[in-house]
Write a structure and sequence with these properties.
The protein has 192 residues and is of the alpha+beta class. It contains seven helices and eight strands; from the N terminus they run H-H-H-E-E-H-E-E-E-E-H-H-E-E-H. Helices cover 24% and strands 19% of the residues.
Length: 192
């Protein structure tokens, strides 16, 4: 949790956890929920908005984003695994955890990237590594590109809510560019 907090900071505003862990099935679940012998990583990391509301991570409003997985299911490998949204950035790209409660397996995390219209993951992108390495080092492709958002947020009178994004009108994979004219505030479920 220390590496995460040092890089990503504290949740502001903070929300209750909305993680789909049962607290007993596997190491990730037990670490997140904690117990009498193990402090809760979920409490240490926190849940809610991070980086000036650029990210919404691990929070109680995540179930609102589940319809996005169904809408873009054509990008997801047909593995038969249960998938849950565990976070999003301001552009609508989603962090997705696969089979979070399968006994004794570390759940894989993927990135459903709206800017490139692809689903991306790596074999070592499992939940503990997401918090301890991938996020603190900001190694997720396109997920931490805050420059455009920062300019928008400085001018905007209202922050983005959990169900709102700065959606690309033309994705990068179809010739779109990273400029303000190619982004607009959208409802995330409608965008998907």
């Amino acid at each position: 949790g220390e590496a995460f907090r040092g890089s990503i900071g504290q949740a502001d505003p903070a929300h209750s956890s909305g993680m789909p862990f049962d607290g007993k099935s596997n190491a990730s679940s037990r670490i997140w929920v904690g117990n009498a012998d193990l402090p809760s990583l979920g409490e240490e990391v926190g849940a809610g908005f991070f980086l000036n509301r650029f990210l919404y991570l691990f929070g109680e409003e995540l179930p609102k984003l589940q319809p996005c997985l169904r809408a873009w299911s054509f990008l997801l490998p047909p593995t038969g695994k249960e998938r849950y949204v565990i976070g999003k950035n301001a552009y609508g790209s989603l962090l997705v955890i696969e089979d979070p409660n399968v006994h004794e397996e570390l759940p894989v995390v993927g990135l459903l990237d709206t800017t490139t219209v692809e689903y991306w993951t790596e074999p070592d992108l499992v939940f503990p590594n997401l918090l301890g390495w991938w996020m603190p080092r900001k190694k997720l492709p396109n997920f931490f590109k805050t420059e455009l958002y920062d300019k928008w947020a400085a001018k905007s009178k209202e922050p983005l809510e959990v169900d709102e994004i700065l959606g690309m009108t033309v994705p990068l994979s179809l010739g779109g560019t990273w400029n303000a004219k190619n982004f607009e505030v959208r409802d995330i479920v409608e965008y998907y």
